[in-house]
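Contributing new records

If you add data, match the layout below exactly. Sequence lines come first and carry their own label; structure lines follow with theirs. Keep one chain per record. Anything else will be rejected by the validation script.
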Amino acid sequence: MKQAGKYSIRLLNKLIDIAFACFLFILFIVGSFALWDTQLLYQKAESSQFEVYRPNPYKEQPFAELQRINEDIFAWIHLYGTSVDYPVLYAHHASEYINKDPFGNYTSTGSLFVNAPAHMRFQDFNTIIHGHNMEHRAMFGQLKEYESYDFMSAHRYGQLTYTNDQGVLENKGIVVVAFLNVDAYDSGVYAYAITNPAQQQAYRTSLLTKASVVLDTPYTDERLLLLSTCSPEETNGRNMVVCYLTDETYPDTFVKEKKFGIGIDKLQGWFGFPWLGWIALGIVIILLILIGIWIMDQKRKARLQAQADTQLIHPSEDIASKEL
């Protein structure tokens, strides 16, 4: 009977070891998938994924190819020296591109977009571009840095490209002038179709009054471009960068050689980890294996010690059971 009891205990311990090893394996699989999925999510949102489509001053083919994929793509925005370097889409209803990428696929990172009935040639007095505040500076994740006066001073220029009424790419200069923390339901900021000159001036004054950082006052005859994203500090909070558009364009002084789009055939998707990610994952796997081996070894030693203690306490009973 005692031998049967010992066998049952050993079997139970082995089952526990197997169950624990399976738990570690499942934990590793779930953790790996979560890491891979997160990496893939942010990788798809990086501006480098769209680099091959960036408008090219020497030919219109790359951006035209992107527009053929999705006719709602009508512009491209680039703030020099930042990760804001994306196509801009026209949303026919407010939630259309909140969770949809420029290719029309579902993604929680969404796209940069303007809401209807905004003018697609940026002829309105003010145009608001919306985008998610993503980690790793994806989408509008870097707008928060414009709350620093030094950062704004060093990154105040950019370029907006769109197709004009003649079907030709047209460039406008972007000049950043202010940063605001506002409420998403502030109708005084999120106002559209302002045509009255007095109301336009009041709108400019209101923006500058609410701004936490201001470089200079927008010219009274320039159109405004506002970049809006969620604020992590408040539920309904929004970070907003105020710019104005100019006919004059500005050089990008942050790069020596511009990587213009070369066409859809060169677009390559990479759905893996970067090298550092693979190294980190390998280290985690090794640590889990070592921990599992150590735990099972400790349990084996504990079982052997328990058996030795039993033999010391009841030596005669153990010998008798063997004779039987």
